[in-house]
């Protein structure tokens, strides 16, 4: 499958584009202006480093920041070259599982865009090499553990050693690039792995949140819900943006549908969908805004100011903003996921649907979809664990010089795991909603809800007698991954 290029210009990268390159293997093209910015910053930092101390180039790092580096006895390499290689080799010390290749490639996309923004001092040949690695579908040999939200030093050091030919790439090989080893700190001084993983989660959740609204509308029809709660007059009375968007989507989905419930009020899982799911939608929008900054920021230390002929030492590497946005999103995600599980429970209750217990067919005592409640609750328990705020922790490292950490890397990893659990929860609700509608004997009326029903019904088996349900859940999950376009948001 061919994909159009994603232009890497240091200014306009989006979460969706990160996913297109990292997951869908779209190719990248580095903007000429980005290469020029990198070249100008590289020339300036070399000039200034010859005249004044520059962190990581003429000094050690961390608590060694006051130590001036010197050439090794008998070495032909400059002090910066030798120190840069030592820095990369010593910091390539991750542990645990290898980074998922998609996340590892997302790290490369983000770092490439950051370098194109200028400010790192890393030479343009590194940008060209990163683009070639991405276009060949490669992922660096980097590990999961090693970052605490103040720089993905271990993973990026490993990526640098892959570029230099000292570590193998995953998925193939690319010719080694002889970039200036003195650029080592300029290359690793970034949170590209954290930002890349967060961007993937944000893009995936945006799709899932839209799909969740569609699935809840199908569940609403399966449970013969009362549409009064979504009325525009009701929603204007409390105009939070996410609540408004979700309610408007539900009205569009249910327009023209037979909504004749005799219930004066539905359970919260239907009635409060705009309020609860809307809160999660707002949290996702806040994360997307934060990532729009981080994906295109020169979060470098030190930062090269070409126009001012300066090098500025700073803390733009600190990821407090992103960590807090990720924590807030997972809490909102848990709330709406719990509502989805509750809707599944209502669809298995004959007092709500007027259908058989557990939507079962066959001899008395048949279990139907009984076990899916357990599956959903199990996934919800994992999501609840992932929702615990990571930014409540901190750390003091490097002999007390670096005395704060937001643990945003852990927030991103928890969000990745939460996305997987949420997809399971939505898959369960979708299976139950389609079965409830089938047992009613009527498909939704033509419109958005009918389109979604037809997509799901085409892949979900029809038999309602007791049988293995693994294939149903896999088909529902695959549909959620393949057809994000069913979202009306």
From TrEMBL:
<dbReference type="GO" id="GO:0016841">
    <property type="term" value="F:ammonia-lyase activity"/>
</dbReference>
<dbReference type="Pfam" id="PF00221">
    <property type="entry name" value="Lyase_aromatic"/>
</dbReference>
<protein>
    <submittedName>
        <fullName>Histidine ammonia-lyase</fullName>
    </submittedName>
</protein>
<dbReference type="InterPro" id="IPR008948">
    <property type="entry name" value="L-Aspartase-like"/>
</dbReference>
<keyword id="KW-0456">Lyase</keyword>
<dbReference type="InterPro" id="IPR001106">
    <property type="entry name" value="Aromatic_Lyase"/>
</dbReference>
<dbReference type="InterPro" id="IPR024083">
    <property type="entry name" value="Fumarase/histidase_N"/>
</dbReference>
């Amino acid at each position: 499958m061919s994909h159009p290029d994603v232009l890497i210009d240091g200014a306009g990268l989006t979460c969706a584009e990160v996913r297109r390159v990292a997951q869908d293997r779209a190719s990248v093209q580095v903007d000429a202006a980005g290469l020029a910015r990198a070249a100008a910053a590289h020339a300036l930092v070399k000039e200034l480093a010859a005249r004044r101390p520059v962190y990581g180039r003429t000094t050690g790092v961390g608590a060694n920041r006051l130590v001036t580096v010197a050439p090794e006895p008998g070495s032909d390499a400059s002090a910066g070259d030798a120190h840069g290689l030592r820095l990369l080799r010593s910091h390539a010390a991750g542990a645990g599982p290898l980074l998922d290749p998609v996340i590892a490639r997302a790290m490369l996309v983000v770092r490439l865009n950051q370098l194109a923004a200028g400010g790192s001092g890393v030479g343009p040949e590194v940008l060209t090499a990163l683009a070639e690695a991405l276009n060949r579908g490669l992922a660096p040999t980097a590990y999961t553990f090693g970052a605490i939200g103040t720089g993905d030093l271990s993973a990026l050091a490993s990526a640098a050693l892959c570029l230099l030919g000292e570590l193998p790439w995953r998925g193939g090989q690319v010719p080694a690039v002889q970039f200036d080893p003195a650029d080592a700190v300029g290359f690793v001084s970034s949170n590209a792995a954290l930002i890349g993983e967060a961007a993937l989660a944000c893009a995936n959740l945006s799709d899932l949140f839209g799909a969740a609204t569609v699935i809840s509308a199908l569940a609403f029809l399966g449970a013969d819900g009362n549409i009064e709660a979504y009325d525009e007059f009701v929603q204007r009375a409390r105009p939070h943006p996410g609540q408004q968007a979700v309610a408007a989507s539900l009205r569009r989905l249910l327009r023209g549908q037979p909504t004749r419930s005799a219930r004066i009020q539905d359970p919260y899982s239907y009635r409060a969908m705009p309020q609860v799911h809307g809160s999660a939608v707002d949290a996702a929008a806040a994360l997307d805004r934060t990532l729009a900054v981080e994906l295109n920021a020169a979060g470098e230390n030190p930062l090269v100011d070409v126009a001012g002929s300066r090098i500025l030492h700073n803390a733009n590497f600190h990821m407090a903003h992103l960590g807090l946005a990720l924590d807030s999103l997972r809490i909102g995600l848990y709330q709406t996921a719990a509502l989805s599980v509750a809707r599944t429970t209502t669809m298995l209750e004959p007092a709500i649907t007027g259908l058989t217990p557990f939507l079962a067919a066959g001899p008395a005592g048949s279990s139907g979809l009984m076990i899916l409640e357990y599956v959903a609750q199990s996934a919800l328990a994992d999501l609840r664990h992932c929702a615990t705020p990571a930014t409540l922790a901190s750390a003091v490292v490097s002999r007390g010089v670096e005395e704060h950490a937001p643990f945003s890397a852990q927030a991103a990893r928890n969000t990745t795991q939460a996305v997987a659990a949420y997809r399971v929860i939505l898959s369960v609700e979708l299976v139950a909603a389609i079965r409830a509608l089938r047992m009613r004997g009527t498909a939704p009326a033509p419109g958005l809800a009918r389109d979604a029903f037809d997509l799901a019904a085409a892949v979900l088996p029809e038999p309602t007698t007791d049988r293995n349900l693994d294939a149903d859940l896999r088909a529902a999950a695959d549909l959620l991954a393949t057809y994000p376009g069913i979202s009306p948001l």
